[in-house]
C-alpha cells in the first residue's frame, strides 16, 4: 500500500509529506454531492499550484478544510491540514516554525481519528526535516535542554525524541485496531492492497515501522547498545509476540521496530481468520528484518525454521507460495554467493553448491501447486533468473601462428558451446566499430557476423552437473595463420540474438613472443 507524496519542492522546504496529490478512487460512503464538492476543491488547489499561484492555493485550502470538517470526513481533513502547512514556508520567510505550530494546534484541538493521523504525518515531517539537515545538525551541541518552539534550533536527540513520541502516540488509541482502512481511502494512493492493511492501526504502524527500520547511523549509540542477539527475534510468530527484550537501551531503533512488530502481529493473530494474508505478510516482513539485523550464530537456520513452520501451517493453501518465494529467495542469495571456480579446491563439498538447484525446485513446486497465485508469480521470476545461460571466453591477446590455440570458457547452464573464429581486416574492424555505436548493436553485429565466412567453427560438449553455478573448462582451437581475428562463442550452433554470445579479439603474431623475450 503506497502513500501519496505531495509536491516535492514543498516537501524539501518543509519536511512535510502530504497525504494526497490527486483524487483517488474511494469506497467512501459519504453523500456523492459532498464528495464531489471536495473533489472539485482539491482539483482547484492542484490547478492553482501548477500555475504557481501558491497564495491562492493556500487560501483555497481553508475552504477545503472547512468543508471536510463540516462533513466529518477525517481523511480529507487531514489531507487539507497537511497541505496548508506545506504552503506556509513558501509564502513566508521563516514560515516553517509557523507551519509546525499550526499542525501542533490542530493535533491538540483534534480528536480520534484525525489526531493520530496528524501525529503520524507530523512525525514523518520531522523525520524528513532531520534527514535533509542532518549534516548541519551533527555538530550542534546537546546539553540536554528541553526543545524550544523553533525547530531550527533543535538537536538530533530532540528531533528523535519528538519523532518517537509522535509515532507511538499515533498508535495509542485502541479503536484504531477495529477502524476499517476503507474509511480513509483518500489517504491511500492504492487501495488494492487494503486486505494486507485492513485497519487504521495497520496503516499507522507500518508508517512507524518505515521510520524505525531506517538506518539512523547518525544517532549516538550508548555503551549498553541493544543488539538482536537472541533467537526469539526469529522465532515463529506465536513465540515472538510474547518475547520481551531485556535492555536499558529503550531508544534503540531496532527495539522500536521489534515492539511495533509485536503489537501489529498481536492484532493480526487476533484477526487471523478474517485476514490470513495480512498476518502472513507482516510476519514475513518481520522475519526478513530480523534476519538482516540479528547477530547470533545460526540465524539463517532459525530463519529457515520459521519459514518451514509457516509452510507446514499453510499446506493446502495458496498462501504457502508466498512462503516458498521467501525460501527460494534465501537459497538463491546464498547459492549465488558460492564460487564454484574457487570453492571446488576446498576440502569437502560446500552444500551451497546446490542451493540454486534447491531454489529452482522450491519454485517449481509452488508453480505446480498454485500456478495462478501471487507467490507462484514471484517464483516464476526467480526460476527464470537462475536459469539464464551465461558464457564468456578468454584467450591470450597474442597467440603464436601455426600452433593450436588454448582458450578458457566460463559458462553457466549450458551443455554445449559453439566457437567461431572470423578473420578481421581494416574494413571489417571499422564496420564492427561503427555498428557498436548504433541502436540495436547486438542484433546488427550478429547479422554482420552471419554474413562473414568463419575460418573455424567448433562445437564443444561441456560438462553440466545441473547445479546452476558458473563453471570453467579449457578448449583447444586449431592453429591460425598470421592476422587479426574475432573469436565468438555462443550457446547455440546458430548465431542469433536470442542466445548468449561473447566476443574477444586476438592476433596471431610473434609479437607476444618477442615481448616476452625482451622482458626476460
**Strand composition percent:** 5-15%
- Largest sheet data: 5 strands, mixed
Number of strands: 8
User: How many helix segments?
Assistant: 20
User: Whole-number average pLDDT?
Assistant: 88
The secondary-structure element order is: HHHHHHHHHHHHHHHHHEEEEHHEEEEH
Low-confidence stretches: 1-33, 514-520
| Radius of gyration from the alpha-carbon trace, in angstroms | 31 Å
Question: What would you note in describing this structure?
Answer:
With 520 residues, the protein is of the alpha+beta class. Among the domains are: 1-191, no CATH class; 390-519, S-adenosyl-L-methionine-dependent methyltransferases (Single Sheet). Helix content is 50%, strand content 10%. It contains 20 helices and eight strands. The chain has helices at 8-14, 32-50, 54-70, 74-91, 96-109, 114-132, 134-137, 156-170, 200-212, 237-240, 253-270, 276-293, 299-313, 320-337, 340-343, 355-369, 374-386, 426-435, 441-450, 511-519, and strands at 390-394, 398-399, 405-412, 416-424, 456-461, 470-477, 483-490, 501-508. It has a five-stranded mixed sheet with strand order 2-8-7-4-5. Helix 12 (276-293) packs antiparallel against helix 13 and helix 13 (299-313) runs antiparallel to helix 14 (320-337). The chain is elongated and about 90 Å long. The termini are far apart. Residues 1-33 and 514-520 have low confidence and may be disordered.
